[in-house]
Amino acid sequence: MKTTFAHLTFKTMFCVAIAGLFSGCSAMRPIDDAALGAGGAYLGNQLSHGNPIATVGGAAGGVLISEGLHYAAKTQTDKAFANGYDKGKSDAVKQQYWLYVSMQHPQSGQDGSVRLYPVKLPEQHIDGVTFQPSTKFLRIEE
Q1: 124-126 and 129-131 beta bridge pairing
Q2: What is the four-CA torsion angle of 55, 61, 67, 72, rounded to 10 degrees?
Q3: Where are the chain's structural domains?
Q4: What is the separation of C-alpha 99 from the centre of its chain, rounded to a whole number of angstroms?
């Protein structure tokens, strides 16, 4: 009896391992469900000496294990995708920042002269607010 149980357990674990190898492929999902369902049905049938209720229960258990493995693999894949997306978005922002900073430095061969032109702003009334006359400076970099 112990050798039969050990033999059945070995066969079931072998089927689970084979199905687990294909669990990453979405096209293999029905095949995995069928394989683990059949393995569970076989195990339930052998352990219960042909009881049909145990056979059906074993098949259902095999399908549930297969679906659980697929759910875990999909959850892990989605989590890895989200982490990669966040990392890529962060890298893009850093790249834009450093591009902007590099544009602020004078290029080689340019003297980088800066001129300030005064612009006189008259008194203005905008939306009930009175702005006093002032002088602002427009920065021109050549």
Answers
A1: antiparallel
A2: -150
A3: 2-104
A4: 27
CA distances from residue 103 to 91, 97, 138 in whole angstroms, order as listed = 18, 10, 19
Rounded Cα gap, residues 42 and 40, in angstroms: 5
45 vs 12: CA distance, rounded Å: 12
- Region 21-25 average pLDDT: 57
Structure tokens at 58: 């074993």
Q: Is the Cβ–Cβ distance between 64 and 36 less than 8 Å?
A: no
SS3 124: strand
pLDDT at 93: 85
Which residue matches tokens 């920042």? 97
User: Which has the minimum average pLDDT: 65-69, 70-74, 104-108, 129-133?
Assistant: 104-108
Neighbouring-strand partners of residue 130: 125
The model's pLDDT over 40-73, given as tens digits with 9 standing for 90+, comes to 888 888 888 888 888 888 888 888 888 888 898 8
